[in-house]
Design brief:
alpha/beta; 8 helices; 35% helix; binds 3,4-dihydroxybenzoic acid; binds fe (iii) ion
């Protein structure tokens, strides 16, 4: 039986990837954050799952806003880093796991989640930056990846509770896969941030801390946050945090917090990272 061993939540700030790609991580702006990544990276080096489900969002890079599905599973053999305007990131191509991805599609559909399926998905900073944060700059990513793209960018987005329930269904789907493999699941995006408009630059450390605390001890509390509350408290793009609920729902009732990192500012955002082991 396949087993979910752990989850990670992490922001996916594109500047973090750019700092790495351009050799700038030693500059004063970045040193403290990258020091914080060291503990995360040593945990990841010792806990590489066979497959990682990365719950992420496309930032209208690959999908256009006139046809944006709520939940899309990527069943490709491999996923190219998408060109976001500066060429493709020079990071390894992401290797998929089509067999398990199709099993997820079928199991989730049977569980009444109407998934979109993509066989030609390319992945933007929402997915490649978390890989860089976890694994630094290897010649090849050490884990196979199943991307799960969530619409957090165009109204109407799925609710925080729906995302949690999707995670629970993913937990059931993984448990019903016969092969003895290990699976990780990551929720990406956030934490509080707003990139444009009058409140550009807003961050809310209290809201973020409560969200992270609840992720461990009272995950259902994070399913009761409305979209309006996310936007008011955590900025217009803070709604990306609903993707962390998918990750948390998949981990089951009890988790152990292994590591947490919180840093302000990274670009105009609060960086948050957490590693949770399934108990
Ligand atoms: C930025 C972009 C993002 O998608 C995000 O989640 C956080 C920050 C940025 O452009 O700085
Ligand atoms: Fe984003």
């Amino acid at each position: 039986m396949a087993k979910i061993i752990a989850g990670m939540g992490t922001s996916h700030v594109p500047g973090v990837g750019a700092a790495m790609d351009n050799g700038k991580t030693g500059e004063p702006y970045w040193t403290e954050l990258f020091k914080g990544f060291e503990t995360m990276r040593s945990w990841h080096a010792q806990n590489v799952p066979d497959v990682t489900i990365i719950v992420f969002n496309d930032h209208a890079t690959f999908y256009a806003l006139d046809n944006y599905a709520t939940f899309t599973l990527g069943v490709n053999e491999e996923f190219l880093p998408a060109d976001e305007g500066w060429g493709r990131r020079k990071v390894p191509v992401v290797k998929g796991h089509p067999e398990l991805a199709w099993h997820l599609v079928e199991s989730l559909m049977a569980d009444e989640f109407d998934m979109a399926v993509s066989g030609n998905l390319e992945v933007d900073h929402g997915l490649t930056v978390p890989l860089s944060i976890a694994y630094d700059q290897p010649a090849a990513w050490p884990t196979r990846v199943i991307p799960l793209c969530v619409n957090v960018i165009q109204h109407p987005q799925p609710t925080a509770l729906r995302c949690y329930k999707l995670g629970e269904a993913i937990g059931r789907a993984v448990a019903s896969w016969d092969e003895d493999i290990t699976v990780g699941i990551w929720g990406t995006g956030g934490l509080s941030h707003q990139l444009g408009g009058e409140r550009a630059g807003v961050v809310n450390p209290e809201f973020d801390k409560t969200f992270l605390d609840n992720l461990v001890a009272d995950p259902l509390a994070n399913t009761r946050i409305s979209h309006a509350e996310f936007i008011r408290e955590a900025g217009a793009e803070g709604i990306e945090m609903i993707m962390w609920n998918v990750m948390r729902g998949a981990l089951g009732e009890k988790v152990k917090e292994v590591y947490r990192l919180y840093h302000i500012p990274v670009s105009a955002t609060a960086y948050g990272g957490i590693i949770l082991e399934a108990e």
